[in-house]
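During the no-cost extension, the postdoctoral fellow (Dr. R.K.) reprocessed legacy sequence entries with the updated structure-token encoder. One reprocessed record is reproduced below for audit purposes.
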Amino acid sequence: MNYSNILAKKLSFFMLALFVVSCAPDTNKEPIKKPEDNRFTKIILSDDLNEPMELAVAPDGKVFFIERHGQFSKYDPNTGETTLLHTFELLPEDPEEVFGNGLMGVTLDPDFKENRFIYFYYTPDKLPARQNLSRFVLKENDELDMSSEIVVLEVPIEREVSAHTGGSLAWDKDGNLYLSTGDNTVPFASGGYAPIDEIEGRITFDAQRSSGNTNDLRGKVIRIHPEADGTYTIPEGNLFPEGTEGTRPEIFVMGTRNPYRISVDQESSILYWGEVGPDAGNDGDNGPRGYDEINQAKQAGNYGWPYFVGNSKPYPDYNFETKELGDYFNPEKPINESVNNTGLKELPPAQSALIWYPYQKSEEFPLVGEGGRNAMAGPVYHFDEDLESSVKFPEYYDKALFIYDWMRSWVFAVRLDENYNFVSMERFMESNGDFRRPMDLEVGPDGAFYMLEYGSVYGIDNVDARLVRIEYNGGNRAPESYPAASDTVGTAPLTVTFNGDNNYDPDSDDEHTYQWIFEGTEVQSTEASPSYTFEENGVYQVKQIVTDAAGAESTGIIEIKVGNTLPVVTIKTEGNRSFFFDDKTLPYEVTVEDAEDTEIIEDRVHISFNYVPKVSRRKNTPGHQMPIPVPLGESLIRASDCQACHQWTEESVGPNFIQIAQRYQDQDVVGQLANKIIEGGSGNWGQHYMNGHPQVSQNEAKEMVRYILSLAGQAELFDLPRQGAVPLNKHQKQGKRGRYVLKASYTDGGGAIVPLTGQDALVLRSNVVEAEDADELNNIGRTNEQLGSIHNGSWFMLKQIDLTGIKQITYNYSSLNIDATLEVRVGSPTGDVISTFDYKNTGDWSKFIELSAPVNDPGGINDLYFVFKKDQEPNEHIFTLDWLSFDR
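Re-encoded structure tokens follow.
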């Protein structure tokens, strides 16, 4: 894996309809229905790992797994404990180079129960640099016998290129061992296209010396047959017969870039692997855009890199010294004429990928979505009817190939026909997977799946990096307990009414019984919704135990805090609380009241002020009294996989957002940085490369940049005084579609229990509201510039509007040939009318005019509904709205 495949746009996935399918259908059998997602449960076995790489499940259910920095560990299902067994001494990393080498692969011998052999692929702490495939003996107590190491195979590498290492291990049904290796080539100097630089002294920039070289073990999938004495023999059917001059007989597959995770079907011995592809965002003179691939090798073959990508899309021969483009390579007869090639000149024909997809939406495989790419191949599942296991996967997934993507965090089940050709694919656990960048996926002896999750951010020690087991429940499912309470905070005596109606049971016909434990350990009520009085101060973990008719149960917990009340924080200001006009400052005063604190501690009062350049239309994050707007740029970043390499304040592979904001503070760089997001590049923040994001629009990239740059000045507007004035001047430069947000909070002294925080927020928007920024729509079309397709009964809504001081509403509108009425109603589309606008048509959709209508202030802050009325036909397509303004 490498940083060139880490940052890209939001993950956008397409829902699949439930459908009935079997891999090789039997006409005499009833079709098998797809199991519901909630029949699968992901159980965390071991967490807080550090860059987990690969796992192997022993016949007794023990899970052995490795972490890239050298840790070899065991999870024991009998004790539920994880034990570190050994830490390998590895070749130290160069901090200036891309992450890659380390402890990469692990697998157990097929006869592990008898011989206790275990294999590792790692970078020993020795020079010259190399990757070792080594066999060890694991003692009966699971201690690794270091004296037993036999180096089965060495793969020399250029240390200065630690990216693209591959390193996955797998076995076929005949006891042959497969090892994937990467091209060990610098990917950054070829613009995301073919790295075939033959300039003298730049050998590490030429993948023709590795992937395209029949005499080199890099950029390959190697297949050998290990022997008992630690040597190996060459199986029949490898790509080059033993003794062929200019070749290595160990090669089963050549022409790979970075085959990061591989798997072998245990029935057919067909090899599958995920290929991490190049970075080019678009087709260009230098060849096709980049694709990630899921590959299948029914027999030995050449899969094309660096001459082809995807379904054998060819690159042109390019002279890096003269910058001249030559002919496109021929997939039927690829020729390696590199000066760095030590093998055959004429290569085997290029084979197409099974599945291939770019950053953008794939025409051939649209379900995979768009965004960053990091394809990996998991197991082919074979249903065993005779296996006695309550957690084994169902027959529905028999013969399905499971694939996954590290960047997009999805898992798919791929269906193949009787000849193992692609038929279809469908999302696995789409609604409840919550996969945290899947790194390895294997089937255990119990028929359950075991997964290593890398965690959220590349290159750091993630707290959500973990080993999980995915179990299937084909029978009764336990109900889910979600207790609710009328109050969760108060002073003693506190009477609370609890509500058990929020519970959920996937088997909806079940009858439930209830047990409530309010304090202590004894059950104190069996009602569905009881009341209870807490006489003493304290923090109580109230438990609700819900049990169905079959005895399956779950426990929900709700915390009740007795002995303190929430502080009351209020932001006071004169005038309107919804709109900013062109005033220079906003005067404010923050008051704090707390029943328990005899004195308000000023250090616990926090007041901040910020300008949000443009607001997301996604659901707002709730504040104490009103919604707090989410910046559109922040929303786009959080919906994307940017956080794989960039954090707000923490260190990662790329610079954090605060560092970027501070570097470019007060500079006019929005367009420049937006282009950097789309086109990619390197050099500004060290040697790490940021790939292009062609699926991100210019407007979206600019919103991301504006949001990041806005972070630079936030510290200056934090911890403001309780009374003062803040400037309303940023909208003059950044546009009137943003929001000013003044927030205040106070954390009390805890009363008789724990501290509580009260808060208030004042959110001001421009009094000129662009129509397309409406909060909700009904039977109205929205474009990037206006609202249209408005008919009789259509309405739009603006949330949380204060009409203090507002005398009229002005509309900038057009209407072809229909006069109608626009009513403003309070609270709902049928609420009280506070304004009526009887408008006349403008005679042309392109002719916009400004007209006003008076408005009455109903008092307070309200949701306003703008309802269109035209009872007589024609009453469709009656209005187009550009903007409206609330005028004093």
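The chain has a mean pLDDT of 90. The CA atoms of residues 381 and 397 lie 7 Å apart. The remaining legacy entries will be reprocessed before the final report is submitted.
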